Amino acid sequence: MEDRLQWKAQAKSVDSDWSESAGTPIHCTEPELISAENCACRGEVRESLHHLRAALRQAPRNAKLLVRAANVFLQLGYNEKALRVLRSAERCASSHALQVVIEQVKFNARQPDVGNSAWCTDSALTRFPVETMLRVFAYLDLPSLHAAIGVCQKWRKWGCAHGPLWHTIRIGRDTPSHSHDRGRDTLSHSHDKERVKRQLALLSLYLRRGKQYVRHVTLGTPVADSEACRRHMKSVSLHSLSVTCYYTYAQTWVDVAIKMSTLCALTINTTGAKTHPWLAPPLRLDHCQCRPLKLLALHGTPPLHIDPPTLRLCVRLEHFSYSAPTCAAALREVRRRCAVPIQTIVHAAQDTLQELLLDGDAIWGVDTFLETPSIPQFGQARFPHLHRLQAPLKCMVLHALPDVALSTLMPNLHTLSLQVSLPRTPGGTSAALLQFASAVGPTTRHATLRITRDSSTWLVKALLQVWTQLTSLKIVWDDPVSMETPMLESVHDTMQRPLTGALLVRILTPGAFDPHDTILCPALESLQFGNEASIRGREIAELVAIRVMLAQCCSVATARDALQRKKLASEPDLQWPLATRFTTLDLSGCRELQPDLLPFLKQHCHVVWSAELAEQARHALRPSVSARDRLSTHYR
């Protein structure tokens, strides 16, 4: 370091022997150089580099400036940058004295400073083989890869030239302003056109870098709505394609996707629909050239048209996801036209299906699959690999299977989402639902119950009794229910009432109704509520306190006695714990929770709740009239 300071002083002493080169006078860049040197002495690397960049831009061909900048680079530990600057200084040096000083500074730049960690790190990174760095880059996602190749010119050169690194392309969704004139979709504003142009340029750049190695593409709006984007996609061979587009382009993107012979996964999300997607013509797969898909996700689109090409495309599905909003579920003819294709796809892929996710009010409407005709079956439906089910049982035609071993139909199911409602058809019972829950009870670990006005408390309690291995439970109220609690009501009458959040908490609380009742869900660790207004907080505090005592090997009677004494400490009277304590309580959907009880809850588990979330839940509260009744009135 002393040698560097000596050569720096010597460089300043020969100013009179140096002739000025063409460019900006030295005094114009002197403040920037002084600031860079001062920042380097204080160890402020980023600020020093900023001032150096400004100085070099003002006088790129000034030899004196370049030598002083090289000394600053040496002080910061960027020896390679110093050598590049000195090579530029050699080309514009006009005196022998200057050439001597440059050679001396270059000699210092070639000597590693052991005490300078920046030099050690830089030299170690530059000694990595190219193959090793490319293997490291291969573990990075696209944003991290952009940051990595911006470290130095070598890394950028390696990264941009190596096509396999750019196997995944993501052009994020950006909301444009659309104007609709007689069915034609146009980008109305100039900034929308500029946004499309910018995204197309980025897509073209990624495709040039990835070349034939591009395998996964995710496109958002507005670039996905342009014809140029679809032309780009016709020239690549993809394994997965995910598109978020305007709803009128759904069929167009399906036509593009089915021409890719290597495609395995297809996801289409639509936006801006003015009418319900079930009122539009179904998506057709004419001239399909791709092999059977493993993943198919359609959100806000019409169902697929059921024909031999569609069945061949879906026969090996492992993941099927479909969602549609509310609006058309009350139209009987629409249900018959759109619910049957969903059932047909599910049963066509029953041998390979692992995840089935159906969402939206149009799917979960209690009448959606009520009158759909039975699809032709050549044998008993069986889903041997299904481990996640979020769909009405009527969609899978499991509610009508009499006297079968349901546990053999789904032996690996561990995540389940059900809508709990009493059948409203003549002669309907809840026996099929309870039989199904009992069959999958030993393997079910995560459950979501969707509650309607037809959900009786006794039915939910019966379901929770058979799920002894349940670790997480989420309750979502699809329909608002009455929260009036009659005084001095018997337990039998209470069980016949529609389920509320407060009533569910009482059911889960050991000994709330009867000290000898079976403890429901003893392995439960996570509890979440959605769209709930009856919970105030005291019942939750009692549930958490009782579970804490049971986890400490206390009996139910001992735990309740300690709760009455307002102490959560008591001598254990059992050898084994009767239940586990809660680790997570998600109360973000509870609109009327009292915040003063949160400190107690947070002492014993992680609580998800905030005033902002509660306010959002209040604003998202549905009208008192259910979607089904509102639609039936609208179409009457």
TrEMBL record:
<feature type="domain" description="F-box">
    <location>
        <begin position="122"/>
        <end position="169"/>
    </location>
</feature>
<protein>
    <recommendedName>
        <fullName>F-box domain-containing protein</fullName>
    </recommendedName>
</protein>
<dbReference type="InterPro" id="IPR036047">
    <property type="entry name" value="F-box-like_dom_sf"/>
</dbReference>
<dbReference type="InterPro" id="IPR011990">
    <property type="entry name" value="TPR-like_helical_dom_sf"/>
</dbReference>
<dbReference type="Pfam" id="PF12937">
    <property type="entry name" value="F-box-like"/>
</dbReference>
<dbReference type="InterPro" id="IPR032675">
    <property type="entry name" value="LRR_dom_sf"/>
</dbReference>
<dbReference type="InterPro" id="IPR001810">
    <property type="entry name" value="F-box_dom"/>
</dbReference>
